[in-house]
Structure formats: C-alpha cells, structure tokens
Amino acid sequence: MITGLMPHETSVTYNRNEPPVHGQSIGKTIKSAGYDTGYFGKWHIPISTEEKDWHGFSTIVKSSKDGPYNDDMVVPKCREFLSKSRTDPFFLVASFHNPHDICEYARILDGHDDTLWNGALSSPPEDDALPPLPANAAISNDEPSEIRLHQKQMPLTYPVQNWDDTKWRKYRWGYFRMIEMVDKQIGELIDCLEETHQFDNTLIL
Predict the structure, then answer these.
(1) Spatial strand order in the sheet of 36-41
(2) To the nearest whole percent, how much of the chain has pLDDT over 70?
(3) pTM of the prediction?
(4) What is the sign of the dihedral through the CA atoms of 82, 63, 33 and 188?
C-alpha cells in the first residue's frame, strides 16, 4: 500500500517477506514535494524505520506489541507533530493497529491464552443482545477449497473452524468495540486539527 504497487511488483508476496521491497514509498514522494512528513504507529513493512532514504518520513515512531508503544501512543505523538511550528505543508500517517486485535480476540473466544494489545474489552453481553450474523455469513458455494485447507494447517491462526453462530456473534460484538476504540482516537486527532486551526485546510484520508 505504501508504494502504490501490486505485490508482484514490490516483491512482498507474503505476510513475512524480507527485503528488498521494490518501489518508492509515498513518504519519499511527498517529502520530495516539500512536505514535512511524519509516521506514527504500526509499521508492518520489512524495511527498518532507520532507512529514511527509502521511506521518506522525517519523524517516525513505530508501535510494538512488546512495548512501550501501542495504539495509545499514536494520538499523543501525532499531537506533537501537528502542534509544531512549520512553514511547509505536512503529511502525517496515523497507523492504528486496531481493529486488528480481533485476531487475538478470536483466539481468546476459542479458549486460548492471548492478549489484547490495544485495550481490553468487557465481557460480551447475553446471547440475545449480541449483534446478528450478516446475510452473507455462510461459506460461499464457490469458495476455493484451498482456503479451508490453509485453515486446517494453521489452527491457532484460524481458530474459527468449528464455531457456532453464537461464537461468531460474540466475535462481531468484539470487532464493533474495537472499531469504536479506534474511532474515538481518530476523533481525538480531528479535535487536535481543529484546536490548532488546521482542520479547514487539511485533507483527511
């Protein structure tokens, strides 16, 4: 995504690829256009944040499950960046991890010991108060069989194989809570733009 290229063009064709990554970072493209560039949060790119000649972000702080940074640090770091006195325009990436914690929540629902790295959830409500399943919840008839084979090979990564409808509804409840958490943090960033009188001339993607 950060290069604007397809996987076969970047050489990143799997979740754990190693360098090199072909293509130019959007950070370098925009920095070359005269912008002050900042990046805070999840950095799931197989290139070190020290490689500023590649990524082009003048200020960069990545979050980590192992600490000290997670989603809680993104807004304060972005606030620092937005509050700087500058004459150049800015380009800021706020890279939140949530709602990716739904992966860990799935393992918790399946009885495995796991951690929600970006904020704990309360217990799900009673079954009749859980959100309903969507109309397309059933497995599609034309789904490639390889998907189910891959699930069986990696049961801890995909603990959902034998779930009933109630467990899926609990999963959806947890996912909605994580969406709310990151929505609140995005709202705090918008508040900061308004407080620093930058909202009206800022494009938000």
Answers:
(1) 59-62, 36-41, 90-95
(2) 97
(3) 0.89
(4) negative
